[in-house]
Amino acid sequence: MNSLAGRSNQGAQNMKRHSGLALIGTLCCSLLFSAGASASGIAQLRAFVADTKSASADFAQTVESRSGRRPQLSSGSFLFERPGKFRWTYQKPYAQLIVGDGEKLWIYDQDLNQVTVKKLGQALGESPAALLAGDNVMEKNFVLKDQGSKDGLEWVEATPKAKEGSFEWVRLGFKDQLPRVMQVKDSFGQTTTLHFSAFERNPKLNPGLFRFVPPKGADVVGE
Question: Which keywords does this chain's UniProt record carry (predicted)?
Answer without folding.
Answer: Chaperone, Lipoprotein, Periplasm, Protein transport, Transport
